[in-house]
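Take a careful look at the protein record below. Let me know whether the structure tokens fit the sequence:
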Amino acid sequence: MLKAQRSSSAIVQQRARQMRFALTPSEAALWEALCRSQLGVKFRRQVAIGRYIADFCAPAARLIVEVDGAYHARRRAADARRDRALGRLGYRVLRLEAALVMSRLSEAVAQVRDALRE
């Protein structure tokens, strides 16, 4: 069992590394606003946490920010299970619609800022 967990963890880590080089346009736009500690906390992108990969994570604040495109509209139940699992690991999850990020980036950043204050 331990060997299988290690193997699974290595696969998740490898996939996260690959995803760092393949950001969606909405993820790239949000990353520009989150990187370099612009909100007073360091964010990392495409972070492996357990068996999941978070779009953005502020480890010190225990906050995960997910940018949800059209794909996620069909995955609401699975995303809710994922959010609960991440919550059990001590993280809060903020989900932002990709359309919001692309059309009203300042509003999306304000939501992240508000979540950091909570």
User: Anything to note?
Assistant: The chain is about 50% helix and 20% strand.
